[in-house]
């Protein structure tokens, strides 16, 4: 008889991090782990240490990402877009205050 095992390390809660998938027991989003890998070139071991999670949690987040790549990639793109908009707004308001001062 075959038994299918499940590793339940990723959760979604509407009131936590906008309902985005997170490592259970933390506020660490799956997209945070993916961005650490893709943009900061961190290894899973480095991510586990810097985020204070287990290596199993890091790999669960990466596995979740690969199973839900389109959704997580969209979340990452939206995060980058929002960050750029905030940066541009801040830089624009700073330049305006320098010019008026």
Characterise this structure:
- With 101 residues, the chain is mainly alpha-helical.
- It has a single domain, classed as Arc Repressor Mutant, subunit A.
- It is 61% helix and 4% strand.
- It is built from four helices and two strands; from the N terminus they run ββαααα.
- It has helices at 30-38, 44-51, 55-67, 69-100; strands at 10-11, 22-23.
- A two-stranded antiparallel ribbon has the order 1-2.
- It starts with 9 loop residues before the first strand and ends with a helix.
- 21% of the residues are buried.
- The mean pLDDT is 90.
Quick gist of this model?
This protein has 101 residues and is mostly helical. The protein has four helices and two strands.
Keywords:
2 strands; 101 residues; two-stranded antiparallel ribbon; mainly alpha; 61% helix; Arc Repressor Mutant, subunit A; 4 helices
């Amino acid at each position: 008889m075959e038994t299918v095992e499940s590793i339940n390390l990723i959760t979604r809660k509407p009131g936590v991090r906008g309902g985005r998938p997170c490592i259970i027991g933390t506020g660490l989003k799956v997209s945070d782990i993916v961005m650490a890998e893709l943009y900061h070139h961190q290894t899973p071991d480095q991510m586990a240490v810097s985020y204070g999670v287990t290596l199993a949690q890091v790999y669960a987040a990466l596995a979740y990402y690969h199973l839900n790549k389109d959704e997580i990639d969209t979340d990452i793109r939206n995060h980058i877009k929002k960050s750029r908009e905030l940066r541009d707004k801040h830089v624009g308001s700073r330049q305006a205050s320098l010019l008026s001062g």
